[in-house]
Structures are given as structure tokens and as C-alpha cells.
Amino acid sequence: GDGLQLEYEMKLTNGQSFWTQHFSADEFGILETDITFLVIFTLVFLLSCYFAYNLKGRQLLHTTYKMFMTATGVEVLSLMFHCVYWGLYARDGVGNGSLKILGKLLFSVSFLVFLLMLILLGKGFTVTR
């Protein structure tokens, strides 16, 4: 009389690997690349903090170096949010859109601070003898 009432769920994946299961072919490697760059930028940021500590002790910590450290630190935060987003996406195929937007926003801030530093250095505004 009333027909069939069905509830179903389809899950289409690219294999069973965590690194490829929910990613399309053009998204393969994004998570691995972001993790690699997170490690690299974290090392760069820690090295810059070490040298900043030494420069501050000698009273040679310059504004441009502070700008570089800011850009690097914000880039580390951006990559961290991107890694969390892509990790969630790899786990369930959905992810959290606000983490992706926050990561992109922080990347833009990092890029703008670094670009401002380069423009100031190019103009000679902050160069001391």
C-alpha cells in the first residue's frame, strides 16, 4: 500500500588509507605538506626566538627582526589550524570550516606583515648603520 520507507547512508572513499580516504585526487598530499611546513616553520620560529634573545641581551633587537618573528609566529599558528582542519577532514570527510577560514586569515596576516617588512627594508626606512 504505502510503499517502502528506507534510510540509507552512502560513503564513497578513495581507499582505506587515512591520508587518501576522504581526499579527492587534487587534494592528495595537502595534509602531509602542511605538516612538513609546520615542522619547518616551527624550527625557524624557535631559532628566531633564540637569536632574538641573544640580540636583546646585546640591545641589538631591531624592529624589522620583530616583524620577521611576528610573521613567522603567525604563520606557525596558521599552519597549525590548517593541519587540524585537514586532519579532521581526513578523519570524517567534513572538517570544520571555521578552522579553515581562521587558518587562511592568519596566513593573510602573516603574509602582509612579511610584505610590509620587505617594503620597509627595500625603501631603506628601517635600515641602520
From TrEMBL:
Assigned keywords, A-Z: Membrane, Transmembrane, Transmembrane helix
InterPro entries linked: GPR180/TMEM145 (IPR047831), GPR180/TMEM145_TM (IPR019336)
GPR180/TMEM145 transmembrane domain span: 37-129
Superkingdom, taxonomy of origin: Eukaryota
Ranges that cross the membrane: 35-55, 67-89, 101-121
Stored PANTHER family: INTIMAL THICKNESS RECEPTOR-RELATED (PTHR23252), TRANSMEMBRANE PROTEIN 145 (PTHR23252:SF24)
Name of the protein this chain belongs to: GPR180/TMEM145 transmembrane domain-containing protein
Organism in which the protein naturally occurs: Ilyodon furcidens
